[in-house]
Amino acid sequence: MAEIVAAFGVPHAPAFPALVAREGPNCETARLYAEVAEHVAAAAPDVLIVFTDDHFNTFFLDNFPTFAIGIAETTAGPNDQTPMPHYQVAVPGALAAHIRATALEQGFDIALVQDFDVDHAVMVPLHFLTPKMQVPVLPIFVNALAPPLPTARRCYALGEAVRAAMESWPKPLRVAVIGSGSFSLEIGGPRVPPGDRAAGFPDPEWTNQVQVLLSQARVDDLLDAATFARMQRAGNIGGELLNWIAMLGMIGARKPRAMLPHAGHGHAFGVWRWN
Amino acid sequence: MSVYAINKLCRDALHDLAFREALKRDPAAAIASRDLTADERKALLEGDVVRLYEWGCHPFLLAYLTRWDLFGLTQPIYNKRIRTAHDARDE
After folding, report:
1. The pTM is what?
2. Closest-approach residue (CA) in chain B for A200
């Protein structure tokens, strides 16, 4: 049996690696990732499962999966010209295949992708959390950008299906899971701010509400609140909350050890550990 | 109407360096072979992101155009225009 040892929620803004390279390890963004990275190291996972949303880089609108799982030996990225180092990382292919087979039996028809690279949504978190790329990474793609999106409850159930697959894995294995993304974020739409910034964070109230619900482990309330309309009002990238919700499905209603806000942004940094 | 073709064009501007350079050099020539209506071609060349957005082009992809100021779309110009677009989320 594979044991789920920790869970993390982090943003993946493509500007962060260059920002931290410029401003140094004491800037707020660097310190927030560093605090999560300490917990990742302490949890000592053998594998990182990453719930991620592809931004039309790995996939495009000619064929855009609602859910997909990467089954390969390695992947690389970022594949979207994010200004940051390019990395290669191992993928636990056999575990990924086991998750897909188990999930199919439970009614989750997850698309298969065997030859793929990944964009900033996977590589920005890894750049800060496991920069030596020493921990194999298993990406599970959730459509957060091309409406209609899967529902919050469906994404939570996906996380539960992945947890069930952990329980039937025949070998001991320490697994940590990452939910990658923002709660309130607008790119290229009418809710961007005036001026020269590419991104807007139009809904601080929602950003705060999500953190409260996460902090109090009010999973049902979060799943009720996170309707498509509500997430879209928080920004056209607000669906990325679904990655956090799928991550929660793997660990159930637990209170986080840390929920760190990021001033002026539409996301937070969350750490769930329990032993 | 081919929203898909415009979305694809935006993606190609990111991933296809030769196409991006062609767009910088001569936008009209660069998009001449693309499967677009006259209206779509005009909207692109004028940087009319309001119409493109309201037709259903994906904002995340449209926003790529600002990275190289394609079709005259600097970030402030893009933002100023897109903020006037009809926002279905307000309904």
Report:
1. 0.98
2. B79
Give the separation between CA A51 and CA A141, rounded to whole angstroms.
6
Distance from CA of A220 to the nearest CA of B (A): 24
Which residue of A82, A192, A197, A206 to mutate against B (max B Cβ within 10 Å)?
A192
* H helix intervals, chain B: 3-15, 17-25, 27-30, 38-45, 49-55, 59-62, 75-82
Taking an 8 Å cut-off on Cβ atoms, the answer to whether B76 and A192 are in contact is no
Of the candidates A187, A56, A185, the residue with the CA atom closest to the CA atom of residue B78: A187
Interval A105-162: pLDDT, tens? 999 999 999 999 999 999 999 999 999 999 999 999 999 999 999 999 999 999 999 9
Strand A137-142 to strand A47-52: parallel, antiparallel, or no bridges (unpaired)?
Answer: parallel
Complex ipTM: 0.97
Work out the minimum CA distance from A217 to partner chain B, whole angstroms. Answer: 29
Instruction: Quote the CA–CA distance of A234 and A230 in Å, as a whole number.
Output: 7
Contacts of B60 in chain A (CB under 8 A): 55-56, 145, 187-188, 236-237
Note whether A189 contacts B: Cβ–Cβ < 8 A. Answer: yes
Backbone phi, psi, residue A74, to 5°: -145, 160
With cut-offs at 50, 70 and 90, classify the pLDDT of residue B1. Answer: low
Contact A130, A48 (CB under 8 A): yes
Q: Does A107 touch chain B (CB under 8 A)?
A: no
- Tell me the C-alpha to C-alpha distance, in Å, between residue B46 and each of A57, B49, B83: 26, 9, 17
**Which one, of A143, A142, A138, lies nearest residue A71 by Cα?**
A138
